[in-house]
Write a structure and sequence with these properties.
mainly alpha, DUF1328 domain-containing protein
């Protein structure tokens, strides 16, 4: 989900401009819905990017008995 942050932002901006730009077409309602969905997914992926940062690799050690 972290790698989709930038594409969701681009889709949200494009559909937002198209949907709320004052065009008088039948597809503006669909563009508004796509804007809201992609903006929500952008926020979720942004939170995932900052909350779940990569942790250093853990190396398993063998236990000798």
């Amino acid at each position: 989900m972290k790698r989709f942050t930038l594409p969701f932002l681009i889709i949200a901006v494009i559909t937002g401009i198209y949907g709320f730009g004052g065009f008088d077409l039948w597809a503006t309602e669909a563009a508004r819905i796509l804007f809201l969905i992609s903006a929500d997914l952008f926020v979720v992926s942004l939170f995932a990017k900052f909350l779940f940062k990569k942790s250093p690799k853990r190396v398993a050690q063998q236990v000798k008995s």
